[in-house]
Design goal:
By secondary structure, the chain is mainly α. About 65% of the residues lie in helices and about 0% in strands.
Length: about 1150
């Protein structure tokens, strides 16, 4: 789980209120009488979006707008009121629905931002406004009747709602012979939208509920209840049912007690009807509203205050003032309350959280009004919900998944009851016992777990208890709660649970001061310390374990819960945390841990086995870090190692066994001893060598790495040359995965003490990297990774273990790897090899420079020209097309720039050429931009062409980048090369190191040396096209050498065009041929070559050539009329299947071309 703990932006004031007001004024100034054209409508839409986004930015701190609300909202409401008046005065008024709706949506944005209860205060609510709003909603085919203008209906219904709150008699609006018409009209309008799917339903429900709460219209509530009951019995319209229930909930909540009690049987019957309808009961919102209705009915059946026992905390510790319950015990509880509570207890077990939460609040509110004995019974019933699924379960982890909802609902109800100080001290032991279990509620369900909401709610209950219980009641439970909360705060998987437990711990420490070392532990487990899981496990937990009161509990929790967790990362971090805790008292805790871990190894659950093996590995590391006596250390390591015998070999060879195999090899690597190696078959784990072999032959790279670590540990203890020789023979002919594994093994063996096998290892690596080798890309990458690792391992004795020829061969293999451009269905997989080679060459250069003093005849090991070749190779990769390759090359090249020269004679020979220029280009303290940013890199890197030592390599890389299809690379490198070539002199001279002719010749040479490789030739042709289209080569024919170069280019691109299979290469050749037409000096030789493309067998080539040639003739001035040629290009169907037509047209076109040229 990714844990983002970055803090959100906290604002102090509504800084953009001025800009918001300007946007609003612009929107309000729009004339609704004029319809806007599409372009203007788009502009208005953008204005509204800016307005909405500006409000959304402050949504989390909406109160910041309060000082400005009246000034902002009032003009919008007045504007809508004016529109309503105009529509009433002239029902046929022409207006723009779009602009009026925009104003309504502005008002809705404020409602969404601050809530309707705040915004409606600024609505006009005079008595006269009733007729305006009501008549506006009743206009036939009026704006409010348009189905898509929901915002207008919503705000108008809210306007009617606030008007209905005013205590005046609707009868004054009625005519004498039509008494009650106004109220009836309001009811009709509200009922019309009670089944809407949008927000109009909520506003209509508010209006209708306010109507039924008025004294002059309250009698209609009975009819509404009867109508609602009838509708719900006969229909299953979910939206209409939601609207009806919203009205009922509001009236029962805010209406008179008499209203609710009079309709009690009917309302309870409605609840039963909803429950009995499969369609309605399957809707979460319906079930929530039903729960809300039932709980509010229960509240209206009980007196507001029963003189209950709310505990009021005093400022002085241990003092609690308790209210008198003398009056509370005399309350007569209606029998319906019991039925209502039963319904709420069922809702506590609902599958959806919002229903359980509503039921929990309802139970607690009713319990608050009940007498003491009844309240206690409610709490006992709630705690009884924990037992429903626990009776048949052997442990917490054997509970069924359905138990999650029940436990969560019970915890929420307990929290709400505790928050109201309704938990008596006598109930605390049982409650805390259940909460202690709920804190660890984590059930595996498929590929994930459930129960985080239960754990969160349990922490909420404990937080509430800290705020309401007195010290004397909590004293017996303080130590237990402290340990459990600290454990959850440190070791829970989810960040919000760790934070919730930390908050509960803090509340107890701050209010009761009963937790052992409370302040100290709180400082170590605060909000920020537990926010990052790794920090909680590896930093905070060991710090808390310094206190003996917490150490054993954390220790047991790791062994019993964390090491058995379904999440692999939890087991890995848990094992590391166990090591750090054991280090506090290693000789006592480690044996205890091993004793329990053995039980995990014998489990049938692979997660338990994996956790146990990880823990044993970490304990072995703890022994190595702590014990200095080698004899004592070996005894302890053997005691750890012997438990590997509990893992049957068959477990390691099953499918998906990589976790166990990797952990077993890791245990061997950390606990193997000389004695166990020498004992051979008499070892305490006779098959441990087979385990390593299984790991080395495994298909997963993670298992191969740990098996290689095991081989490395063996090589540090004894001579394993025979094993390495055997592995080379077995694995080199094996699968690609085995070959990769072999390269890993060879890269970690200790050759300093056992050098006999080093030549075999190097020979295998070089054989695998030869061009004739059949090794796949992953194997080549592993072999190239092994080369710098081996050289690093033998660096203390490099001169004695490796000859200069061997080092030269290894460096040559890495330099050759820089040219790996293998492509398969995964893309440029050769980049994996190139990145490894870049890093390897840099690492070897650093290593040889650092150890130069100890290497006799250093120049033979790393000749200066080889070092310069390495730098050039890195620069080539630094200007190539892939961002990640460029970034890696850039970082490594900067490392070479900053590496001190070797301490040998004439060290200046290893100084990089043009070092001042390199530092000027790439060493910039003020700019921390990476080489992956093409716009920053290429304008600088293009100047590397001025340096002869780097020119060939850099030009090769630039050409590849120009052929890239990525704009972020191709555009900046193209612009940089064009600008650079335009600034070059035509021919070289004494003052210029590089010329335009040199650039052309270098590009031609690069292509000629790779004529069979389209991957090289096509980018070179694209580079020439780029330069020709930019007119950068305009002056090249002025020099004889330039004309010869263009002739060479012409010959290259026109040779065997009809035999080429690559359409892209043919296209790029065609573009060069056509662009060369602009050069008068060689035009005569070019025109006949056009037939090779205009009459090519591929129709696509013919049509593209015609199109490209036509565009050139339109844009370039060749010095003669080309109208006839252009007509042929336009009139001929070049993509026709009849090639003879194309040949005739091409022949005629060339004749016109030649005749036009002859005329001038």
């Amino acid at each position: 789980m990714a844990e983002n703990v970055g803090e959100e932006k906290v604002l102090a004031t509504f800084e953009t209120v001025g800009e918001l007001r300007k946007l609003q004024d612009t929107l309000l100034s729009l004339d609704w009488n004029e319809d806007s054209p599409d372009a203007q409508r788009n502009d208005e839409s953008i204005l509204f979006q800016k307005f909405s986004v500006m409000l959304d930015e402050y949504q989390e701190q909406s109160y910041l707008l309060d000082p400005y609300l009246e000034d902002l909202v009032a003009p919008v409401v007045e504007r809508l009121k004016d529109f309503a008046k105009a529509c009433i005065a002239n029902p046929s008024l022409k207006y723009s629905p779009w602009r009026v709706d925009t104003i309504a949506r502005v008002l809705y944005s404020y409602v969404k931002f601050r809530g309707y209860k705040t915004i409606i205060r600024y609505f006009p609510h005079e008595i006269a406004d009733l007729s305006i709003a009501l008549e506006f909603m009743q206009i036939p085919d009026g704006l409010a009747q348009h189905w898509y203008l929901w915002a207008m209906r919503y705000v108008t219904l809210l306007w009617l709602y606030i008007i209905c709150i005013i205590p005046f008699d609707f009868a004054q609006f009625d005519e004498l012979d039509r008494i009650g018409e106004t109220a009836s009209s309001l009811e009709t309008v509200a009922k019309r939208y009670l089944g809407a799917a949008g927000l109009e339903r909520e506003a209509a429900a508010l209006l209708l509920s306010r109507l039924y709460m008025r004294k002059d219209t309250g009698l209609g509530f009975h009819e509404f209840v009867v109508w609602s009951h009838s509708f719900l019995q006969e229909n299953s319209d979910v939206f209409k049912a939601i609207g009806l229930l919203q009205v009922l909930c509001e009236v029962v909540k805010s209406g008179s007690v008499e209203q609710a009690q009079a309709e009690l049987p009917q309302l309870l019957s409605i609840s039963s009807t909803v429950q009995g309808s499969s369609t309605l009961s399957n809707n979460t919102v319906v079930r929530k509203l039903k729960t809300k209705l039932v709980s509010r009915l229960g509240l209206r059946l009980l007196p507001t205050s029963t003189g209950n026992r709310r505990q009021v905390r005093a400022l002085i510790a241990d003092e609690v003032h308790v209210g008198s319950d003398a009056t509370g015990e005399d309350v007569e509880v209606p029998p319906e309350v019991e039925d209502i509570l039963e319904l709420l207890f069922e809702s506590l077990q609902d599958k959806d959280t919002i229903v359980r939460w509503s039921a929990a609040k309802g139970v607690a509110r009713i319990a608050e009004r009940l007498p003491k004995d009844f309240c206690s019974q409610v709490l006992e019933t709630v705690m009884g919900l924990f037992e429903i699924h626990s009776v048949a379960a052997a442990s917490l982890y054997d509970l069924p998944a359905v138990a999650e909802g029940t436990w969560h609902g019970a915890c929420l109800a307990c929290a709400e009851i505790a928050r109201r100080s309704l938990v008596e001290p006598g109930h605390l032991p049982q409650l805390i016992e259940w909460l202690s279990k709920a804190l660890y509620f984590d059930l595996r369900k498929g590929a994930h777990s459930i129960g985080s909401n239960v754990r969160d709610a349990a922490a909420y209950v404990l937080w509430a208890l800290a705020r309401t219980q007195n010290q004397s009641a909590l004293i017996p439970h303080a130590s237990n709660l402290a340990r459990r909360l600290a454990t959850v705060a440190l070791y829970d998987r989810e960040i919000h649970i760790r934070r919730a437990a930390s908050a509960a711990f803090q509340e107890h420490v701050g209010r009761n001061s009963l937790f052992p070392h409370g302040i100290d532990v709180l400082a170590k487990t605060d909000f920020y310390a537990v926010s990052i899981r790794k920090n909680a496990f590896l930093v905070a937990a060991p710090q808390v374990a310094e206190h003996p009161e917490y150490r054993d509990f954390l220790f047991d929790h790791l062994l019993n819960v964390v090491l058995r967790h379904w999440d692999i990362s939890m087991r890995e971090l848990g094992s590391q945390s166990l090591r750090l805790i054991c280090s506090h008292d290693l000789y006592v805790l480690a044996p205890r841990a091993i004793e329990k871990i053995v039980l995990l190894l014998e489990s049938l659950d692979l997660a338990d086995v994996h956790g146990g093996l990880l823990a044993l590995s970490e304990i072995a590391i703890a022994y190595k870090e702590t014990i200095k006596d080698p004899i004592v250390l070996e005894d302890h390591l053997r005691n750890v190692f012997k438990h590997l015998k509990h893992i049957p070999e068959s477990t390691l060879t099953t499918t998906r066994s990589e976790l166990i195999a990797s952990a077993a090899c890791r245990l061997i690597a950390n606990s193997i001893t000389v004695t166990e190696i020498k004992l051979g078959g008499r070892s305490s784990v006779p098959g441990w060598r087979n385990i390593v072999d299984i790991g080395l032959k495994h298909r997963m790279a993670s298992v191969q790495e740990t098996a290689a670590d095991a081989m490395a540990a063996m090589s540090n203890l004894t001579d394993c040359s025979a094993d390495v020789t055997r592995l080379i023979k077995e694995l080199r002919r094996g699968s690609p995965a085995m070959q990769q594994s072999l390269a890993l093994v060879l890269s970690v063996i200790n050759y300093n003490t056992h050098p006999k096998v080093l030549p075999q290892a190097i020979a295998y690596l070089l054989d695998s990297l030869r061009p004739t080798s059949k090794a796949n890309i992953e194997t080549r990458r592993s072999c190239l990774q092994a080369i710098p690792r081996i050289m690093t391992l033998v660096s203390p004795h490099l001169a004695s273990l490796m000859s200069s020829d061997t080092v030269h061969d290894l460096v040559a293999a890495l330099l050759a790897g820089l040219e790996d451009y293998t492509i398969d269905e995964r893309g440029d997989v050769g980049s994996w090899v190139r990145i490894v080679c870049i890093q390897g060459l840099t690492r070897i250069s650093e290593l040889l420079f650092r150890t130069a003093e100890s290497i006799p005849d250093f120049e033979r090991y790393l000749p200066p020209e080889t070092y310069i070749s390495i730098a050039a190779g890195l620069l080539k990769q630094g200007v190539e097309r892939l961002d990640n390759v460029r970034q890696t090359a850039g970082v490594c090249f900067m490392t070479l720039l900053n590496t001190p020269l070797p301490l040998v004679d004439r060290a200046d020979r290893w100084r990089l050429p043009a070092l001042p220029l390199l530092r000027e280009l790439f060493v910039s303290p003020s700019e921390q931009i990476g080489w992956n940013d093409g716009t920053w890199l290429f304008p600088r890197a293009i100047r590397l062409l001025e340096i002869p030592e780097y020119r060939k390599s850099v030009l090769s890389g630039i050409v590849i980048s120009i052929g890239s299809k990525t704009d972020s690379t191709q555009k900046p490198v193209s612009n940089s090369l064009v600008k650079f070539s335009q600034e070059l002199p035509l021919a070289g001279g004494p003052e210029s190191a590089y010329s335009l002719l040199d650039l052309v010749n270098d590009l031609i040479s690069h292509a000629k040396s790779h004529m069979t490789s389209n991957a090289v030739v096509v980018p070179v042709y694209q580079t020439f096209t780029l330069l020709l289209e930019a007119d950068a080569l305009r002056h090249v024919p002025e020099e004889p050498a330039g004309r010869r170069s263009l002739q060479t280019l012409l010959n290259m691109t026109s040779r065997n065009v009809d035999k080429l299979k690559s359409v892209q290469r043919i296209h790029e050749s065609m573009k060069i041929i056509v662009n060369l037409l602009t050069f008068e000096q060689i035009r005569v030789k070019i025109v006949p070559l056009l037939s090779s493309f205009l009459a090519h067998p591929f129709p696509k080539v013919r049509s593209d050539t015609a199109e490209y040639l036509y565009i050139l003739l339109q844009s370039a001035d060749l010095g003669f009329e080309t109208d006839a040629v252009e007509d042929i290009l336009l009139e001929t169907e070049w993509s026709t299947s009849d090639i003879d037509i194309a040949k005739e047209a091409a022949k005629e076109l060339i004749q016109h071309f030649m005749s036009s040229m002859t005329e001038i």
